[in-house]
């Protein structure tokens, strides 16, 4: 059956973003054509800017987005869970400026239409939530397993539409996730929290033993739908698009 979704030929690769005098590497992908497109910032988990994250970036670009994933670990790639947790713990206050620089790179690009969404995974989910409650210029935020402990007071006043996607086994209590859902809906009835039982951290990452295929598939569908409802559609020459069947 024919789908109305299109796939764009893309370009991708590493770029550099300047943050307070520091050159931060980032991975970048975008449609290889003219026109303007919405922007997406992807924030990686405690595993760093892995091949899986780069694949996700390309996937969003193929759907018609300008996408950037800042390398918050500055080229460091943890090899063990302990190393990943230790590196994530050292990020501290530098995370938000790095994310802000990535957002700025999209907003000032002449092929970006100004609509920006942010998507974060695990450690990146917490950062995405931080950005969503502190800014009023984002069109959407999708938070995978983002710790909301520090943002509970701010959530009811958040103007960014937020979708939370959580593994029931990620260590957040059912009561906390229910409270998070209530707080998000106090800001907007369109906000919501979805909990996937039987999976935990890294459930979206198909390179990890903790990957949950059914949960990941549903989360992808929800994420794409959430973005499509809130980001302005691409404006591009129609003859370069490739229909997906």
What topology emerges from the helices and strands here?
Elements: E1 6-7, E2 10-19, E3 22-31, E4 37-43, H1 51-62, E5 66-70, H2 81-89, H3 95-107, E6 112-121, H4 123-134, E7 140-144, E8 162-167, H5 174-187, E9 192-196, H6 213-230, E10 242-243
Parallel strand pairs: 4-5, 4-6, 6-7, 7-8, 8-9
Antiparallel strand pairs: 1-10, 2-3, 3-5
Helix pairs in contact: 3-4
Give a short summary of the structure.
The chain is of the alpha/beta class and 245 residues long. The protein has six helices and ten strands; from the N terminus they run ββββαβααβαββαβαβ.
Tell me what you see in this structure:
The chain is of the alpha/beta class and 245 residues long. It has one domain (6-231): Alpha/Beta hydrolase fold, catalytic domain (Rossmann fold, 3-Layer(aba) Sandwich). The chain is built from 6 helices and 10 strands; from the N terminus they run E-E-E-E-H-E-H-H-E-H-E-E-H-E-H-E. It has helices at residues 51-62, 81-89, 95-107, 123-134, 174-187, 213-230; strands spanning 6-7, 10-19, 22-31, 37-43, 66-70, 112-121, 140-144, 162-167, 192-196, 242-243. The protein has an 8-stranded mixed sheet with strand order 2-3-5-4-6-7-8-9, sandwiched between helices. The protein has a two-stranded antiparallel ribbon with strand order 1-10. Helix 3 crosses helix 4.
């Amino acid at each position: 059956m024919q789908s109305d979704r299109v796939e764009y030929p893309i370009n991708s690769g590493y770029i550099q973003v300047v943050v307070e005098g520091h050159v931060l590497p980032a991975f970048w992908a975008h449609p290889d054509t003219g026109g303007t497109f919405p922007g997406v910032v992807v924030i990686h988990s405690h595993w760093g800017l892995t091949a899986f994250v780069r694949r996700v970036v390309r996937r969003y670009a193929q759907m018609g987005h300008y996408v950037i994933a800042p390398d918050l670990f500055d080229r460091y790639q943890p090899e063990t869970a302990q190393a990943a947790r230790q590196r994530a713990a050292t990020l501290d206050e530098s995370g938000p400026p790095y994310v802000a620089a990535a957002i700025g790179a999209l907003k000032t690009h002449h092929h970006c239409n100004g609509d920006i969404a942010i998507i974060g995974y695990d450690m990146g989910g917490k950062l995405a939530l931080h950005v969503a409650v502190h800014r009023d210029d984002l069109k959407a935020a999708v938070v995978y397993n983002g710790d909301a402990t520090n943002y509970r007071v701010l959530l009811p006043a958040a103007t960014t539409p937020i979708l939370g996607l959580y593994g029931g086994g990620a260590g957040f209590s059912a009561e906390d996730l229910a409270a998070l859902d209530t707080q998000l809906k106090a800001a907007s009835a369109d906000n919501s929290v979805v909990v996937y039982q039987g999976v935990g951290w890294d459930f979206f990452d198909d390179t990890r033993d903790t990957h949950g295929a059914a949960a990941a598939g549903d989360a992808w569908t929800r994420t794409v739908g959430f973005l499509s409802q809130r980001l302005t559609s691409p404006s591009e020459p129609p003859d370069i698009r490739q229909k997906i069947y």
